[in-house]
Amino acid sequence: MMANSPADILAELEEVVATYPPHRCARILAGMVQLLTGSRGQCRELLVNVVDGVLLRLTERVEASALVQLSTALAELDIAPPATLWRLASHDSPDVACPVLLKSRALSAADLEAVIDSRGEWHRRAIAARSDIAPTVTEALIKHGGPICLDLIKNQGTKFSDAAYAALIAKADQDGEIAKALVLRPGTPDLVVRKLLSAPPARKAPAPSAAAPVPEAEPAPPKRPCRADYAGARPEIVALNRIGKLNDSTVNRFAIRGETANLFTALSVLSGAPLEIIEHVASDDDCEGLVMACRASRLNWQTTLTILSNRSGKRLSYSERERAQRIFETLLLSTSQWTVRWGQIVANASTGDPGNRSPKMGVSR
């Protein structure tokens, strides 16, 4: 009696499986999964290639719940049946696909990129949550945009190429959350951070017709932040300060973009003055207190001027600007810091009557 070859036996087994009822297929599937998960090393590597075709045929005969269990089991294996794994990863149902997309180390970068381009949001979000994401996979996910970009930035297992950083910088022009997340992410290259912090707040509008000149608009007064605004801003500001990135570029961006809660919190953290003091000097008609707070924060004159120019509904006159610059240049850093934290500026901030303010804030220059 002539023995059948292994290939013939497998082909015969696949034909038998095709005639079995679903409940018997599910039992066979469960037994094969136990066989795979219980094997080790070279034995598993040989086994996955042998059973792949049978598993593939079984996936056509069982219910979705059995496929979810199969996906969950195969996701834990370093070596898994390739054809079966691909069918699960590219399955239309996220419940079936997501376990292997999230965890399987047997899926290649090319496999993941193919799923990204051919399946939906849930599939892409599972890939974006993987513990290790190759640069090419990152680029493919960023191309689709949306919340995926933030998911990738917050995932410490994401690897970014230069092309991925460039794509995120372009998207940050329209989405400030992307810029914030990238700046706060440990390991973001300094060059990327500088580009993000120096980016203009919005694209310039087309120039008006020369036949009908339009007068320059006054800046709108910034909305005064509430307690919740400050609570939301403080973690970011403290984190930026801790890593040495709460600097002139950052504060300048806050002022230009009208991010008042971020700006006031930054001045408070840098100068050591309470938020109430910063709010008071920012709303005062006299600019001296705000200039002092900026000087105490170690900001340069250009940043100080930006803050002054964007703090109210009217532009600085030439004389006001000249006076503010003289005050800034003659103030000693140590005097500014002491005064902002403990000196006469605190007493002045305790009353809303400008008439009670001393002419020079009690400061000796």
Structure description:
This protein is mainly α and 365 residues long. Helix content is 64%, strand content 0%. The chain contains 22 helices and no strands. The chain has helices at 6-19, 22-38, 41-59, 64-74, 82-89, 94-103, 109-118, 121-128, 135-144, 148-154, 162-172, 176-184, 190-197, 227-242, 248-256, 260-271, 275-283, 288-296, 301-309, 318-330, 333-342, 344-349. The longest helix has 19 residues, at 41-59. It is rod-shaped. Residues 1-6, 202-219 and 344-365 have low confidence and may be disordered.
In short:
The chain is an all-alpha fold and 365 residues long.
Mind sketching the topology for me?
Layout: H1 6-19, H2 22-38, H3 41-59, H4 64-74, H5 82-89, H6 94-103, H7 109-118, H8 121-128, H9 135-144, H10 148-154, H11 162-172, H12 176-184, H13 190-197, H14 227-242, H15 248-256, H16 260-271, H17 275-283, H18 288-296, H19 301-309, H20 318-330, H21 333-342, H22 344-349
* Major sheet characteristics: none
Helical percentage = 55-70%
**H/E topology pattern:** HHHHHHHHHHHHHHHHHHHHHH
Q: How far is it from the N-terminal to the C-terminal residue, by CA? A: 110 Å
Helix segment tally? 22
Could you name the ranges where pLDDT drops below 50 across 5 or more consecutive residues? 1-6, 202-219, 344-365
What gross morphology would you assign? Answer: rod-shaped
Radius of gyration over C-alpha positions, nearest whole angstrom? 31 Å
Strand content: under 5%
For the secondary structure, the number of strands is 0
Category from helices, strands and their pairing: mainly alpha
Overall pLDDT level: 79
